[in-house]
Please model this.
Amino acid sequence: MAFKINKKDSILILTVNLKEEPFFYLIEALGEVFSPKSLDIELKRYDLELSFSYNPERKQFHAGTLIDKLKKIYPLREGLILAILDVDLYTESLNFIFGEARLQERIALISITRLRQEFYGLAKDDKIFYQRVLKEAVHELGHLFGLSHCANPKCVMHFSNSLLDTDIKDYKFCPLCKKNLF
Ligand SMILES: [Zn+2]
Ligand SMILES: [Zn+2]
Model:
């Protein structure tokens, strides 16, 4: 059961330890995705030592531990938090994850590490990269608003098993998901 988007809802995008990447385009793009609701969307840079969540055997960072930490840093926030990190994330049951959302605590994470073409030995492509970041961001925010995965492969709430799924889908909600949100 999705929550209807509330007038009061705001989104804080935290770019964690990212110095170079310009993610300000997300403010406008997310504004478009969630229109006609006008959510208050803010972007902040945040530096955080991440070693506490590192698993040396897997050479990956544990998403749940990171969410716990962010919840402690921003315990009383009313709106949603979307953290963007450039480390490879995992959860117990999966080899890796593109992102994770914790509905009750209204915090989600996405990792940009596996969204770059270079990760797969391909030539750098900023356009594809920024589209993927947007899709993953909208997807996890959709979960924070209570949406589940959608069967429509074009819908942003479709589950991405691989980047192929991400590239096929749109960055927007399908009419059905939109109806649940608005
Ligand atoms: Zn999902
Ligand atoms: Zn959908």
About this structure: The chain has five helices and nine strands. The longest helix spans residues 126-144.
